[in-house]
Write a structure and sequence with these properties.
Strand 3 and strand 4 form a beta hairpin. Helix content is about 35%, strand content about 10%. By secondary structure, the chain is mainly alpha-helical. The radius of gyration is 20 Å and the shape is globular. It is built from 13 helices and 7 strands.
């Protein structure tokens, strides 16, 4: 009994230390502010993405109360809160998370998650138990918290039930690489600057691949950077786009070891709750194949105390002794499990 109490005190002390943890700014790429006098754009020109029979104008693609659905025949109709929201306070859920629920690196993939889990996360955002760990304002998270505060119980239930019925498909390819292209930020995601080489390298080059040093690339270092390989498709909100996540060489092998309980830094193996292949359960979210950027933000939020909702105490103990490199390794492995 005394020994159990001492262990509990040690865990609590370790978790408390996480309150001073500061999330790295590179994990929250910020889109540049809009220019004071933006150049005019064609408001009527129809825009298209591959394999879609529909078109949208640039103005329609910027409407937070209308989710662009490039492939409407591929699923059942969206409920109103997903398709249109309710102006002025409730945005269309499908605008950010996409009609298929696959999401993008700046937000969550909801497809196939348990409806009860989705609803609980929104409730935690509403109560303040789940907050952004960003070191400053981060619009995607700020929008979601605003959404949670204004959505009705019926809105949340309708969205959760809809997204839980969507089929999850991984939209990220994980590449171990020591150098990455010099980047810009487009829609809260990294994109290579014109002429940059490393992030445009063949994703099939394998672990440890790197481009030659030069003005067009830079060391990745101890970072995880998820790139949109086609910035225009990202801007068009094409939910078939596959992103490329660059992680340090050896990350996936180290992440596998940590996920299965190897090493002294992890308090409990990820597979204990999330399943042998990190597929999740009826109550626990899947990790396999999801955006590693999003997953890393959640581990950072647990470590820093921004997430204090259901199961947060357990997760804070899991990450208490993990450093940012360890967390990168774990999410790199998880995201790679169903790489397209």
């Amino acid at each position: 009994m005394v020994r159990a109490f001492i262990v509990l005190l040690a865990c609590c002390a370790s978790v408390a230390e996480g309150d001073s943890f500061v999330a790295p700014s590179w994990l929250y790429p910020l889109s540049p502010p809009a220019p004071a006098n933006p150049p005019p754009f064609d408001k009527v020109k129809p825009l298209h993405v591959a394999q879609s029979r529909v078109s949208y104008t640039r103005a329609q693609l910027n409407d937070l109360y209308s989710a662009p659905d490039w492939f409407p025949d591929s699923r059942a109709p969206m409920p109103d809160v997903v398709a249109r929201g309710r102006a002025p306070d409730v945005y269309a859920c499908g605008f950010c998370h996409t009609p298929s629920g696959q999401g993008r690196p700046e937000n969550a993939s909801l497809a196939g998650l348990p409806a009860a889990y989705i609803s609980r996360q929104v409730a935690d955002m509403k109560s303040g138990a789940r907050r952004s760990a960003a070191p400053g304002p981060y619009r995607p998270s700020d929008f979601m918290i605003r959404e949670a505060q204004h959505a009705s119980d019926a809105d949340i239930a309708a969205a959760a039930n809809y997204f839980s019925r969507q089929h999850f498909s991984s939209h990220v390819h994980v590449v171990e690489q020591a150098r990455v292209a010099r980047s810009r930020v487009v829609g809260w995601v990294y994109a290579a600057v014109a002429g940059a080489g490393a992030a445009g390298a063949d994703a099939g080059a394998g672990a440890g691949a790197s481009a030659g040093a030069g003005a067009s690339d830079e060391p990745l270092g101890e970072r995880l950077m998820e790139f949109a390989p086609d910035a225009e498709r990202h801007e068009l909100r094409d939910d078939n786009l596959v992103y490329t996540a660059y992680v340090p060489p050896g990350s996936m092998a180290r992440g596998l070891l940590l996920a299965r309980g190897g090493g002294a830094t992890v308090a409990a193996p990820c597979i204990t709750c999330h399943g042998d292949r990190l597929q999740g359960t009826a109550a626990i979210p899947r990790l396999a194949g999801r955006s590693p950027t999003y997953l890393l933000r959640q581990l950072v939020a647990f470590k820093g105390g921004a997430r204090t909702g259901a199961n947060a105490a357990l997760m804070r103990m899991v990450v208490a002794n993990l450093q940012i490199g360890d967390m990168i390794d774990v999410v790199a492995y998880a995201a790679s499990l169903e790489s397209p």
